[in-house]
Amino acid sequence: MQVVTTQAGLGRIEDGAVALLDTAFPHVGAVLEQEGSLRCLESCAVRRRTSLDEATLIAPLGRPRAVWGVGLNYASKAARTGRALPEQPILYLAASSAVPEPGAQVVIPQAVTEPDYEGEIAVVVGRRLYQASESEVWPAIAGITAANDMTARDVMRATGTPALAKSYPGFTPLGPSLRTPDDLGDRDAIRVRTRVNGELLQDDTSAGMIFPVPDLLSRLSWFSALEPGDVVLTGTPAGTGQDRACFLADGDEIRVEVDGVLPLVTRVVRPA
């Protein structure tokens, strides 16, 4: 099942259209807080149907309580940068205020000189995970979506603090739809691609992760309880602007494609 939040309410994507559901939940995040999964939406009656082009999609989760990220979690990225594989995940929190509406323009602060994209697979927690085993992780995940974990590389270099380099308003775009894990063809090899102005620059699958999803969330859960609606960004493969010494410019369009969900399109603007 693939779900969206629209200005007219929650919907399921069916046959390329949006089936608007008869439910009082304002967004997917509210469903997870109360139900712990999206399964209740499978049986919701349909109020009416509309085309994807006519539907106004808004942030599917509302404002997440927590957005976790991980650095250097793809073997391809480590190989490109010449860095050794980490023995433990490099984890950080980004401000939830950095999550914009789908399709919103991201204004790059004038002080940021090296804005970069990072196409990623995001997983959304459905049921609380604390000190969880790997086998408990996928059953507790409500869905996946696309993410663009944007980074101010110059700020990262100057401060050494991921939270500061990634928390500018709009720097954590999340995809417009969520796909439930049981609807994925192969959840251990989910493909993620990133195109900038139409050029394919990142192309990998979750099989290339150093810490796969169950391992990553299990490790994280031994330090922090993951609550319904929390988002975990799972790392970016090789092909970022950092790898090419080519950073985002005014008017650039970034398109992140993750198996099973609607593409995430982000446009950046630099003030004059």
List the helices and strands and how they pair.
Layout: E1 2-6, E2 9-14, E3 17-21, H1 28-35, E4 46-51, E5 57-58, E6 67-71, H2 75-81, E7 90-94, E8 105-107, E9 115-116, E10 119-125, H3 137-140, E11 141-148, E12 151-152, H4 153-159, H5 162-166, E13 177-179, E14 191-196, E15 199-205, H6 213-221, E16 231-233, H7 241-244, E17 253-258, E18 264-269
Tell me what the structure shows.
- The protein is of the alpha+beta class.
- The protein has helices spanning 28-35, 75-81, 137-140, 153-159, 162-166, 213-221, 241-244; strands at 2-6, 9-14, 17-21, 46-51, 57-58, 67-71, 90-94, 105-107, 115-116, 119-125, 141-148, 151-152, 177-179, 191-196, 199-205, 231-233, 253-258, 264-269.
- The protein starts with a strand and ends with a strand.
Number of beta strands:
18
Question: Quick one: overall form?
Answer: globular
- Structural class by SSE content: alpha+beta
Reading the helices and strands in chain order gives: EEEHEEEHEEEEHEEHHEEEHEHEE
Biggest β-sheet strands, sense, barrel: 6 strands, antiparallel
Cα end-to-end separation: 43 Å
Quickly count the helices.
7
Please give the radius of gyration in angstroms.
18 Å
Average residue pLDDT: 96
β content, as a range?
25-35%
Q: Low-confidence parts lasting 5 or more residues at pLDDT below 50? A: none
Query: Helicity range of the residues?
Result: 10-25%
